[in-house]
Amino acid sequence: MRFKFSLLAITFQVILIILFAIFVTYDTPHHDTHGNSTQSEEDEFIKLYPLFQDVHVMIFIGFGFLMTFLKRYGFSSVGINLLIAALGLQWGTLMQGLWHLHDGHINIDIIKMINADFSTATVLISFGAVLGKTSAVQMLIMAIFEIAIFACNEHLVVSLGAFDVGASMIIHAFGAYFGLSAARVLYRPALKDGHENEGSVYHSDLFAMIGTIFLWMFWPSFNSAIAEAGIDQHRAIINTYFSLAACVLTAYAFSSLVEHKGKLDMVHIQNATLAGGVAVGTCADMNIHPYGAMTIGFIAGIISTLGFKFVTPFLARKLKIQDTCGVHNLHGLPGVLGGLAGIVAVLLGAKPGASAGIQAAALAATIGVAIIGGAITGFILKIPIWGQPPDQNCYDDSLYWEVPLDEEEEHQNHYLEDQGKMKVEA
Amino acid sequence: MRFKFSLLAITFQVILIILFAIFVTYDTPHHDTHGNSTQSEEDEFIKLYPLFQDVHVMIFIGFGFLMTFLKRYGFSSVGINLLIAALGLQWGTLMQGLWHLHDGHINIDIIKMINADFSTATVLISFGAVLGKTSAVQMLIMAIFEIAIFACNEHLVVSLGAFDVGASMIIHAFGAYFGLSAARVLYRPALKDGHENEGSVYHSDLFAMIGTIFLWMFWPSFNSAIAEAGIDQHRAIINTYFSLAACVLTAYAFSSLVEHKGKLDMVHIQNATLAGGVAVGTCADMNIHPYGAMTIGFIAGIISTLGFKFVTPFLARKLKIQDTCGVHNLHGLPGVLGGLAGIVAVLLGAKPGASAGIQAAALAATIGVAIIGGAITGFILKIPIWGQPPDQNCYDDSLYWEVPLDEEEEHQNHYLEDQGKMKVEA
Amino acid sequence: MRFKFSLLAITFQVILIILFAIFVTYDTPHHDTHGNSTQSEEDEFIKLYPLFQDVHVMIFIGFGFLMTFLKRYGFSSVGINLLIAALGLQWGTLMQGLWHLHDGHINIDIIKMINADFSTATVLISFGAVLGKTSAVQMLIMAIFEIAIFACNEHLVVSLGAFDVGASMIIHAFGAYFGLSAARVLYRPALKDGHENEGSVYHSDLFAMIGTIFLWMFWPSFNSAIAEAGIDQHRAIINTYFSLAACVLTAYAFSSLVEHKGKLDMVHIQNATLAGGVAVGTCADMNIHPYGAMTIGFIAGIISTLGFKFVTPFLARKLKIQDTCGVHNLHGLPGVLGGLAGIVAVLLGAKPGASAGIQAAALAATIGVAIIGGAITGFILKIPIWGQPPDQNCYDDSLYWEVPLDEEEEHQNHYLEDQGKMKVEA
């Protein structure tokens, strides 16, 4: 694997540098007839920069740490997350920019940087579905394919005239169904009764909460970063803020309802509390009123928790889809809910100029493209040259990382030595 | 407990949605006589949004992780913190907004969102006083009562004409004395000699430092977020920045002075380093000069550390107040110091238009309302239907959460099995 | 030690308050001829405040947690980091401000606060070189000396007319060579074959990744915070963004190339992924094109990883420089690369008005001042009154901190007791 991984990463990076040399340049402010740059353009960059950084934190800390819940897969979760996001943001800049060339160039501004981060989110969501069962090489390949397909589907949806400011459909539903489709192709019968590493320990669950809370806090920035400045952007922030708050209450309530002895389950709390951010995405900038946003969050928290309890086992057993992080419950179902909420909101007149039929077409197209794209990518990943881990080494960092011996393991080793001596003595 | 907790959370959320439908709407920019919205209003939202997000991080990461220091109570600390803050920000929007209706409506803007987050801070502070000894149901009840009382007291203080831009009095002192008063009512004699779970482990102390550092860094945003734009807001940021820096030096110096063999104590470092932010709150936007701010921080670091060493044991033994997180030392004493510093600053002319007498009245009123409100709430929480944990299950996540078995525990189990076998063999 | 540390910290803080009373005041906006303050000045503070906070996070979370990788030195890493940064930002305000007095005063504005944070970065970098082998008292002394020398060197470089917007030379190379020079003087022969505490455990490596990721995300703010508003600042953000992304790919590729069985090494991932931010610093605001920035990052990731593998062992064995965190690989080599890249960029005309010769002089001067300054400081730190830890207590928090007994240790103790009993029984 040594040379395959390294060679692939270096090759990709060299190609990216060459493509950037050909296509990518800075966005220079336009000048008015007097030769002065317009103040407002210069301002936009620095005004949106804090929102960009919030999204950046969601991508690298949020997604990265959310997946550290597995007891022996934290290095890979946060580490491979960084790797594929770093690749993805460069590739996404090209794939999205090629649809919008100016004089043959992609002019980088803050909106393009936000969109580059967005495009990586799709791969990170799909990563969650196959977490622990794929190699770094496979993830690099997936990033290349998924982002290219994502950029096409996004262009399609925008061309149709659909609205999806917070990307419930084109990022969340897309990433989830792409990943689930790939996971189906990569199905491993040997893991159908679970794996000893497929669980958390106390502190790994706390690390995961770092990811959850940063995602939860900055979701209003995710849903509003590319909204139109002014009231639309304010609404996107306000709606997401209240949707997420309402979602927390129902996620906790239903976690306790469905669990043994009414206890709370960390898996639900880490994930379902975020469903309100996903589900309010499509209509975040629409005039749905704060109580409308809260209603969407209310339903999302319920659907997501019930998804973990009932849908994930069903997918695993009946459809042979092993969804490690439960992305179907955090991004799939709430993403679809978001698309449907958008249709309802448009029907109720919350977005002048929008069409419910086109919203529905965008949702259907997105899911279709995602499933087909994920399946094709899955088959490519299945080619046995990418170093896919064997079943018994799944969910285990030590296959790809130098892992330090823990003190408890050292103790254990000493203990075994001592045991040995004692046996001899005895 | 299963149904009680779930039913309560769902009921609260449904009521909130209904109240929001009746009362809450977006703030739409005012229009000038030509029908154009004013630029400055649209700008304010996005200008203050980064400060809002800093406060948001303090509430959810800061308070949440600060309390994860307990070895077996991390899930509850960060998890119940999220739950009550999500409830609290919705309820706080209503409770504060009802004092300022426009045409019967609460118009949400960025200032209202910041204030909603502020109102949750009071409950999170009080949560620290009763941490590990209350159920999630009790905390939901406390949030409802405390935020309602907080909003009344805040309205009273503002009506009096007192200044408290960083809320030393109306949030920090209020939250602390409310919580201590409730803790007094909920006194548990069985815990007076401590509890085996009431301590930290190495990594739980590091998780807590995540909370500490985020609180420390973003405190300038907390103290300046609702200050008047311009020089007042700049001063609030600068004063808080330097007060916190000075406070760190004295917190470390006095921690070493009072501890065994001159060692540093994590409890002091996690908490007393923040006292400078609390204590400079009331006069943050006043013309107290940077060295004035540093002097306040200098004293706060000392008072807070000495509070942990001498006052907390006194409260526990003599006044029967078991203050789990030592909120009296981080929010109570420094909050009072902040109120007193405000009086001195006003006497020295640092805030034109302010009155020292009114500042003193605000401080006294706040402490009085907090103690009475906390006691009443404490008695309500004592009604034996809210699922208060039994003494032996205090400070233990496993009462309310599915807790994974740690590897060390697994090892331990294997070890015990092996021991059993060995004994048999021997 | 008790009194020495406490007395020193209190004395420093008292002196700082006195010096602030004499020299430091708020920056009040200038007024135009009509007596109105200019809008743009008021705006600059709040526009740059988010970038300041990003830098603040890098200093306190980034540097603090990056160093928590050691298994038993996390309290000191994040705790002493906080202590010396809190001292350093006050001292840096004075040391930098004294070169720019207005009417005998230092007028604090947002740029001065950003620079104050920057000046602490030099000490935190040097701290990494001597981590685990110095006392808190020694670090306070080092902070005082290093920041004073840094401010002189910075003034020298600016006076020469050199450009270094992201401070590859004056912060990163300076801090690294200062620290390495001090580490050389403080060489400990007994540690030349390593120390049992000089390694990580699984979760300490995850804590360190919190530091890495926050540094990685916010580096564009570090490199652009004091750039000229407008296109220069935008370029600094864009260049850093893409340099860091490219750097990740090569850091991973080369980590796998040089390690046993092609595995990834956490030390490389935690550090070398950041080298792109360091190396693009000097020419961040220059017109080097995005692909130029990526090329710099590409090289930085390679150099840094190879540095860890080959240069660090060489320094330790041949030059007697024990560089605990490998700051030479993260800040030293990439800092020099940044200085050289600046020279090349200036030669290629990327910065009108700049001179390659002056850039080279600035780089040489900085390294010279750092090595001499570090050596002098090292000899001062070697005076045996500062409580330097004995060899066997290096890398161990329990020398200076109250450290809780871990559960595993408790288990171990029980186990040893049980063993004792069993032996007796046997």
Automatic annotation (TrEMBL), chains A, B, C:
Record flagged with keyword Membrane: yes
Transmembrane segments: 7-26, 46-70, 82-101, 157-180, 200-219, 240-258, 291-311, 332-350, 356-381
Localization: Membrane
InterPro entries: Ammonium/urea_transptr, NH4_transpt_AmtB-like_dom, RhesusRHD
One GO cellular component, as annotated: plasma membrane
Signal peptide: none
One GO term of the biological process aspect: ammonium homeostasis
Catalysed reactions, as listed in the record: NH4(+)(in) = NH4(+)(out); CO2(out) = CO2(in); methylamine(out) = methylamine(in)
Annotated keywords: Ammonia transport, Glycoprotein, Membrane, Transmembrane, Transmembrane helix, Transport
Its membrane topology: Multi-pass membrane protein
Molecular function terms, GO-annotated: ammonium channel activity
Coiled coil: none
Ranges where the Ammonium transporter AmtB-like domain occurs: 17-397
Assigned protein family: Belongs to the ammonium transporter (TC 2.A.49) family. Rh subfamily.
Quaternary state and interactors: Homodimer. Heterotrimer; a RHCE monomer interacts with a RHAG homodimer. Component of the ankyrin-1 complex in the erythrocyte, composed of ANK1, RHCE, RHAG, SLC4A1, EPB42, GYPA, GYPB and AQP1. Interacts with GYPB (via the N-terminal); this interaction bridges the (RHAG)2(RHCE) heterotrimer with the SLC4A1 Band 3 I dimer complexed with GYPA.
PANTHER family in UniProt: AMMONIUM TRANSPORTER (PTHR11730), AMMONIUM TRANSPORTER RH TYPE A (PTHR11730:SF32)
Name of the featured protein: Ammonium transporter Rh type A
Species name: Pleurodeles waltl (Iberian ribbed newt)
Lineage, broadest ranks: Eukaryota, Metazoa, Chordata, Craniata, Vertebrata
